[in-house]
Amino acid sequence: MAYDLVIKNGTVITADSTLIQADIAIQGVSIAAIGANLSGKRVIDATGNYVIPGAVDIHVHMQMPLGNGVISADTFFTGTRAAAIGGTTAIVDFVAPEADESMLDALAKRRAEADGQVVIDYGLHMTISPHEVHKLDELPLVIEAGCSTLKLYMAYGFRLQDDELFKALQAAHQHKMLPVVHAENWDVIGTLIEQNRAVGNLSPHWHPRSRPAIMEGEAAGRVIDMAAYIGTPVHIFHVSCDEVVQRIRNARQNGLQVTGETCPQYLFLTWDAYDAPDIQGTLPVCAPPIREQAQQDKLWDALKRGDLQLVTTDHCPFTKADKARGLDDFSQIPGGVPSIEMRLAALYQGVQRDILTLNQWVDLCCTRPAQLAGFDKKGHLAVGYDADIVIFDPEAKKTLSTETLHEQVDWTPYDRLELHGLPISTISRGEVIVLDGEFIGQAGRGQFIKRERLQRKV
Ligand code: DUC
Ligand code: ZN
């Protein structure tokens, strides 16, 4: 039989396999066979390359409005195109309802922004702000509509107070939804920001010094303890420091269903970046902040030991003009950095440096994110799974810059970073959308994927 498409002669890597030389056959949108001498109507030769599951990024913010006309710079089209070029075949973005809006109406609105634009598949987390706490009875409809994860903020003006956080976690438990949490102690951070501003400490140097690691650890510990009391799993977003890693590690050692992710900005940058002159120092502002080298080293150790389970991006680019709004006051700088295109290849540097195995790399970037978010047919290479596949050339090299990246933003925090090993072709549900580095997909071909409620151990 000739399958629709066969990827031949590659080295197939999954999270749990030893490496195998095999062909992968695709029929329609799914993987139909993995084996030797498969024949196809179309063949892509992957000799010398790795063949891995499409990467999954469960933490991104496309065209996210921040207020005052500031909106994150990648649209659902440009952001997912960059993602696809970088080897990512599924993302999860966010719905943030207005106070007077039902969760379902907000979900429909966000879907209307994304459908027709996305080039890869996507899901949405439902944000529970204080004004959603009295709407929690809407959650069964939200699950039916395909959202099985709840975003809970412990930071910013719209954070949940402890009583609200507790009720949201109880609701997540009741409906078997996964809570995903931005953990920082906002009352302390807000106080430190005001104290710094009051004495004229206004440069970006003071951004990480107003958001201490110990307060990220405290918040993570608090939400983990609440989740443990209730009996719900919980996932900690964008871990920037060892103080949080230790809490996750202890919880897991005690048998709790707690997971954590970190992001490329915490693995490749250090807080010296905030001391760059003029606008440059404002650009890497994000929250939690980028920290010192020792913290970066500990995050790599945590990935190696398995104390952090996935790597996402928190992709949220703002232009230089938007960042400049905070040039004279670090507290006014829109927080967020672009990373969506480089993540998979960036984490491969961990393999190059003998920190991670190939299996760990695939697990961190593809398999665990898919499992955790409930993309049941993604993140793995096996018969019946979606044919979301990346061909990765371990010898290709690229120097990152705004010229070599495809994100819609006029800077990158990774300027001049050399990557050794690159995704070269990306297949999404059986369709080749990036071939030899060139994007050939279309806007709107991606689909909203309904994600089921939690039935798995995290
Ligand atoms: N932190 C950021 O830096 N950007 C987006 C949202 C967030 O929590
Ligand atoms: Zn985020």
State the main characteristics:
single chain; 458 residues; alpha/beta; Urease, subunit C, domain 1; TIM Barrel; 2 domains; 19 strands; 31% helix; binds dihydropyrimidine-2,4(1H,3H)-dione; binds zinc ion
Can you walk through the features of this model?
The chain is 31% helix and 24% strand. It contains 14 helices and 19 strands. The strands form 3 sheets. Strands 1, 2, 3, 4, 5, 16, 17, 18 and 19 form a 9-stranded mixed β-sheet that branches. By secondary structure, the chain is an alpha/beta fold. 55% of the residues are buried. It folds into 2 domains: 2-52 and 379-439, Urease, subunit C, domain 1 (Roll); 55-373, Alpha-Beta Barrel (TIM Barrel). Bound molecules: dihydropyrimidine-2,4(1H,3H)-dione and zinc ion. Zinc ion binds at residues 59, 61, 314.
Task: Put the structure in a nutshell.
The chain is α/β, with parallel strands linked by helices and 458 residues long. Helix content is 31%, strand content 24%.
Assigned CATH superfamily of the largest domain: Metal-dependent hydrolases
Q: What is the first-to-last residue Cα distance?
A: 39 Å
**CATH domain class of the largest domain:** Alpha Beta
Mean pLDDT: 97
Poorly predicted ranges: none
Let me know the number of strands: 19
Query: What is the level-2 CATH architecture name of the largest domain?
Result: Alpha-Beta Barrel
Q: Shape from CA axes?
A: globular
How many domains? The number is 2
Task: Report the helical percentage.
Answer: 25-40%
Task: Give a short account of the largest sheet.
Answer: 9 strands, mixed
